[in-house]
Design brief:
This protein is mainly α. 63% of the residues lie in helices and 9% in strands.
Length: 137
């Protein structure tokens, strides 16, 4: 009986994590949509703007990005393609490995990131504080 209760506690905790994640993504998408971004788009811009690549340079290999934003390689490639089409990032070949692709944020991408950063951080603060009044609830 105690083992079943402990197991159910783990399941409930896991479902709680999933609920917070889903609600937070929903709210991020809602807040960022008027700016032409979704939550995953912002995560990539945020990484490119605020992060440092493994080699210390300003551009990231696609593999580095995929390890940090938790998207499949194909989904990330499509996302980067959209960001590039919108003029927010540029893509180029890796000098050290011609099979690799590097991604760099543009001035336009940095500007948009700066505009929406306070919105994203406010959503995180609200959602992680446990505000349930999101996504139409």
């Amino acid at each position: 009986m105690a083992a079943e209760n402990a197991e159910q506690g783990l399941v409930d905790q896991w479902r709680g994590v999933l609920t917070v994640h889903a609600r937070t993504l929903c709210e991020l998408d809602r807040e960022l949509h008027p700016h032409g971004l979704g939550a995953s788009d912002f995560e990539v811009l945020d990484l490119l703007t605020a992060g440092t690549a493994a080699d210390g340079g300003p551009s990231f290999r696609v593999q580095e990005i995929s390890e940090r934003v938790h998207l499949s390689q194909s989904a990330l490639s499509r996302l980067i393609g959209r960001l590039e089409k919108d003029g927010l990032v540029t893509r180029g070949m890796c000098a050290e490995d011609r099979r690799g692709v590097r991604v760099c944020v543009t001035a336009k991408g940095r500007e948009l990131h700066g505009e929406v950063l306070p919105l994203q951080r406010a959503v995180l603060a609200r959602m992680l504080a446990g505000d349930p009044a999101v996504c139409g609830e």
